[in-house]
Fold this sequence. Notes:
Elements: E1 8-12, H1 16-28, E2 32-36, H2 39-49, E3 53-57, H3 65-72, E4 79-84, H4 89-97, E5 102-105, H5 110-128, E6 136-139, E7 142-145, E8 150-153, E9 156-157, H6 162-173, E10 178-179, H7 181-189, H8 199-210, E11 221-224, E12 228-231
Parallel strand pairs: 1-2, 1-3, 3-4, 4-5
Antiparallel strand pairs: 6-7, 7-8, 8-9, 10-12, 11-12
Amino acid sequence: MSTSxxxxxxxxxxxxxxxxxxxxxxxxQGFRVEVEPRGDRAVARIASLQPKAVVLDGILPGKDGMDxxxxxxxxxxxxxxxxxxxxxxxxxxxxxxxxxxxxxVKPVTPLVxxxxxxxxxxxxxxxxxxxxxxxxxSFGRFFISNANRTVRLGKENIHLTTAxxxxxxLLASHAGRILSRxxxxxxxxxxxxxxxxxxxxxxxxxxxxxLQDDSSKPTRIKTVRSKGYLFSPSDFD
Length: 237
């Protein structure tokens, strides 16, 4: 792995020992690593450095990690991997809803963080590569391009995380067909579906909101009970 600026990771973590261990672990794998211990300086450093990925602790001095994630996600296109000591499902739901690409609960080892970070970066790189002849799709007012990773609804540009774009492209490229959660997990994450994992459901919920789909009676991304999700192309006219 090269040590170019494309491999810069910003670790936003106030636990000095853990941050040092994680920094050493990532650097051994070829990443360049910067560490920021304060939340109230994190947004400015992310904007300045534009790292490939941010490993973001949930509880920080000066500013909460959730608030940082919410503030940077509209403009930051890199990976956000959140860490927290709070073992609470609602925290995970909130973190993913704010645009985090993945979420880990402490205590966690640097090697586990590395594995999840690599998986997030891999998904980003694979989807960015031209893997199919069809690279653009449009249905009425909806447009999505896998070539330059853009989404529009009418004249409005929709800003998505890497994981959200991957999921939306998968659904749209199979428009009119029900995709099971197993299929989605296998295609996007190369793992079997875990019934306790809410990350797909949370991303579907956020996509519905961004695509102006009624969450109480969605018509654009439909839930088919006991089967999965269906992208309905006719509902964007």
